[in-house]
Task: structure prediction
Amino acid sequence: MKPILFFLGVAFALGACQRAASEVQEAQQRLTAVDKWQIQEILIDEAPVFKEGKHLPHISGVKFDVYMDWVRFTTNGAFEGHFKDSTNTKKFQWESYAKQNVIALRDTVAKTGGWNIYPRNVYADAFEMETRSSVYDPPRITKVTLRFLKK
Result:
């Protein structure tokens, strides 16, 4: 009987490590606890087009030549991202909206942008941010998802 309890305890502990955040405050704590997050994957309408530094063939033909290879969140609301091959970083502002259960990123200069992070996509070692845009296939709305891993 004891081996079964031990196994269940280990299984529960391992499952808890991979549990998504349940609300924005928990997601916010997880995002700011990591010094840098590294890009792992870019998806267009749930299909991978970029993974581990390589472009993947996709029916849309979309290629990301410019992308943030790492990002970081600070507790004062700053979001800093480094574009691949760039010598500087880009700064945004993030805000949490408890009522909508989302963390949103906006451009600090233009006060625009639409990247959202939902707690259901924030783990201790990974997170996703997403946006919807008609830029890639006008006038159709395309969902773009960026997946980051703890660096």
The chain has one domain: 2-150. The longest helix spans residues 2-17. The beta strands are 37-44, 47-51, 54-55, 68-73, 78-83, 89-97, 102-107, 115-117, 126-133, 142-150.
